[in-house]
Fold each of these.
Amino acid sequence: MKRVGVLALQGAVREHLQSIAACGAEAVPVKWPKDLERLDALILPGGESTAMRRLIDHYGLMDPLREFAKTGKPMFGTCAGLILLAKTVVGSNEAHLGVMDVAVERNSFGRQVDSFEAPLEIKGIDGAFEAIFIRAPHIVSVGLSTEVLCVHNGKIVMAKSGQFLGCSFHPELTEDHRITEYFLSMIPHKSDLLLPNRSIYSKV
Ligand code: GLN
């Protein structure tokens, strides 16, 4: 069974845990560095990125999270979680984890519309996805290796960059688990990991 962690410091933790379980994977709350052991993937939830950052520092999680990113295992940031993953946060001279090749701007849909719902067309997901945005960031620019998966009102709201998936909205606040399933499908099958590296063999 796939084991998927959710950073459990602040924000929409329980909803992500429920969505992972609904997709048939084991859901693991992550509060301490040791909780990252034996995970296949990790979700950073929505909430408040500055509060979450303070707690990451408090629990000594920054280096372990960066080490986790180096293993190449999939990581998914939703809303504030996307801000934590981004290499650049507009208006701030310091990134948080700084691992996903995107630049994000916080609270970028205007204070008048703190939260709204919108049906989205997302690459790789069949049919519209009814998305909930809450004081959402958007992606202002992406690196060359980043694939844009969804644009809403001219703003990038979902992207994938290698092992990293990020979205501006809150898929976990709906009963629609297709985005969690999409993320789980980024976890390599154990059997693939045991096979000899085909690219090495093809060169022989
Ligand atoms: N505005 C929040 C932040 O900057 C993100 C909002 C959310 O996660 N719903 O962290």
Amino acid sequence: MAKASNTAKPAAAEVNELIGNGGELHQQTSDPAHWLTTNQGLPIADDQNSLKAGDRGPTLLEDFHLREKITHFDHERIPERVVHARGYGAHGYFQAYEGNDELTKAAFLCDSKVKTPVFCRFSTVAGSEGSVDTPRDVRGFAVKFYTSQGNYDLVGNNIPVFFIQDAIKFPDLIHAVKPEPDRAFPQAASAHDTFWDFVSLTPESTHMLMWAMSDRAIPRSLRMMEGFGVHTFRLINAKGKATLVKFHWRPKLGTFSLIWDEAVAIAGADADFHRRDLWDAIQGGDFPEWELSVQAFDEKQAAKFDFDVLDPTKLIPEEIVPLRPLGKMVLNRMPDNFFAETEQVAFCPANLVPGIDLSEDPLLQGRLFSYLDTQLSRLGSANFQEIPINAAKCPWQNMQRDGHMRMRVDPSRTSYEPNSLDMAAPREAGAAGFESFAVPTEGTKLRQRPESFADHYTQAHLFYKSMTETEQRHIVAAFAFELGKCKEVKVRTRMLGRLEHVDPELAKSVADKLGMPGQADKIDPAVPTNFKVKPSPALSQYRDPPQTIAGKKIGLLVTDGSEARLIDALIRKTKAEKAKVELVAPKIGGITDSEGVHRDADQFLAGAPSAVFDAVCLAPSADGVKGLVKFAAAVDWLRMAFAHLKIVGYVDEAVPLFDAAHIDRNADDGLVELKNGKVTDFIEAAKRHRIWEREPKVR
Ligand code: HDE
């Protein structure tokens, strides 16, 4: 079995620093455990200079150390994932609750005493590996469970439905959303002609478009995202009984999103916003947690739904089938090495364990082929499962042999079965092993969508109808933004035609925002929208959000002379609420507070716009504010916090900043004065996260 890690570091050694002839620094040690070596283990005397004919002469081909070092460097890159290239992962564990054995015999879901190790990778879909963290996009949510029965992968997204119904359309969808092939832009964006051309010609994408245009596609944090298995799966219990399920991950911190303008600002201020957030949280001991649940139902119930459970563009409203919690996942350790773990991790929906099985969803069926296939070109060898992050943590053995980069040394004379020459060789497990659930199947070989997949608008309408006014406003704005980026008028008018079937009001609002009223194409749907469908309040993020600042970040703007008592109180009280304060000062060197004590700054003003914080607090001194009002970054800090609907706390000394930003301090109750150094009112207000009522006034 592959070793989990071979990177254990020896204790720090004594290092001598010498300056060489050419003035270069040589760091040397006499401790063999710390010697720099070639890949063959040869200790290296000098890593600063190549081997040359004379100190000013040409480099010699003989220099095997130089050649080895450069050759390895030349081959450091592997192909990035064709989708979900930009991702970030963490280790953790999953622990089941009691009582799941009624549903499944999967050992890791049944034994509540076992902590099953997991590796979880979050990702954007369209952008390449070096793109930013906050574009409007679906987020991948992939979890590898290293169970005692082999690896189980739940490879989901943060949105419960998908753009297409059949795997055969996936390359088209992705080609449409990726940068346009002649010009190679835009990067990590769906706001362009080819995407909207394709989806406006693909009515089945309509429901997913509603989600993609909602705030779900601009999450505040990877820690504040839901996850979904999307497809219907089967759980099988020890008696062989199958239950159909949809998987859901719910974040303990609640589901929060950015505002579009904020996401755009963050993309410039901190392209790594999401990964930094996850890194900071886990390194700081604040471990994010999700609850895994299923919506469980049987074939009889499924037959009564007015949609097909094999259709991945449909969801089951929780009001019809409620969530049943199975256990929790905690992420508590960052990888030691990004490439070795996060980049090389290989997920596959076909990685199953006894007790969990597939369904006939035609999108899922295609995925079963794609993931293994893509790993072969991405990781370059059929032995990729031997890479430590991919290796099962239970014993694994079979008759597969050889190939590029085979690590495992199989000692047996036999590499086939049945055999009678090695009685210790691996054998079948029979009923203890994985058995596909016996689904009765028969049919004519054909290429045809079932009629039960044909209603593309009712659930899109259901989603829109279930949103709060704020959420609806954001959806309208997102459609208008994205379609506004399309140069082709026919793409816009076609999409407006589709939106009429989702909701005529929505279509009208988008058309108005585009300045194209009455220009929607007339489109005949295969199945007319059922506008009477019952809304599902559970689909809304903002109807009943948790009132908490846990996991959030408050930016505290300070200057020389800022009140020490207030700074300490805010840090203390915020910590008690499991949130964090960052001190933002005009300069990174920090400030001297009212008590004459030096305080380091976490951020400098021009490098940390208020967009990167959940709430802000302005606590300059009377002298300090005089400098701030002349400083555009400071005025913008307040202006943008207000425009992003944040809770703003302030001390009396900060009033000139409000004047400079032309903001009325009494505009709404999200602007909270900290009287006599009291921070409680501000913290309580910050639990509201945003003042939605402010939005129509500022945008
Ligand atoms: Fe994927 N998808 N996908 N996908 N997918 C990949 O596999 C594919 C789909 C998802 O963090 C690729 O290893 C096809 C739905 C995630 O490493 C590739 C179809 C859902 C990740 C692939 C889909 C997903 C991937 C690219 C339609 C949500 C990132 C690299 C039939 C349920 C996993 C790789 C990670 C990655 C194919 C549709 C989720 C090419 C053909 C639906 C989270 O194999």
Amino acid sequence: MSLQSIVFDKEEGKLSILNQLLLPDVSLYEEINTVQDAWDAIKNMKTRGAPAIAIVGALSIAVELKKRNFLSLSELSSFVNESFSYLQSARPTAVNITEAAKRFSEITQGLVERIKDPKKACDILYKNLYEMLQEDISTNTSIGRNGAEHILTQYSGGDVTILTHCNTGSLACAGYGTALGVIRSLQEKGRLKQVYCTETRPYNQGSRLTAYELVTEGIPGTLICDSMAACLMKERHVSAVVVGADRVVANGDTANKIGTYQLAVVARYHGIPFYIAAPFTTIDFSISSGSEIVIEERKKEEMICFAGKRIAPEGINCWNPAFDVTPGELITGGIITERGVFTPTELINQKK
Ligand code: MRU
């Protein structure tokens, strides 16, 4: 059984998301009726993960398109562009929603030039928006297959053990997952010995979400605290580290969940290949180096409280960056995409 984080009824134009703040205890779907609802859900991390942020944002626009009556193409075009621009402001680091904004701005502009009837243009846009769901699943299936094949050709030691970080599975996407898609594909090929997942402090995407996906889907998994990763690599066999990304830039530097960078450093020390798995919508060729990526900082309550209980003294200062940047040179296994697996230096040749 695969978890579904985003449910969209295309006939009715109704969107629901699985509230990820309540997992793993409670599975509650909540309706997203407006772009504002989507912005709130993204900001509060009821929905999270770079692809899911873009898809929920885009589908919230579809929900409004279904209900509204646009009197002109320029009104429709302004609504789409302004909505995307507002949605991008909810969380700055993941680039997928910016890519979606660019794509839909071009589609809308093309419609404005070709089509006279706003209703017809609205219907075409609506269809393009909901097709993002299926596109994401097929992209992730390709990422999974490419990554699993690459790891297996590099590795001749039997079944593989993977270490992953944060949550990159069905919950972070429309389905299947990116890094977790690679793990899923290894499992489908009967070649996965087991996966270690970090708990991923402070928000615990690993223990609350990845561990939940592994258990629900019968994938052999073991949870570790973030501080155990170096010891794990030394004491137990890890064939490869595979994580997702929020933004990969032109030189291969990659922003991903805080803690990714230290895993890459430790993997390098232990000679363990380190992979990023991400769709092309996560690659930002407009930025040349990771130092230019805007890193979101989140509120200190995520660090000083756990499940509503205070776990650090009042008055302590906190620094809570949600992401860090792993230099391309530490991505020793490669960047796994739907188009193939590339070294950071090969990536730039993939720019269209
Ligand atoms: O803060 P989050 O939970 O949105 O961060 C998610 C990650 O860092 C994921 O690794 C990344 O978005 C890839 S999800 C396929």
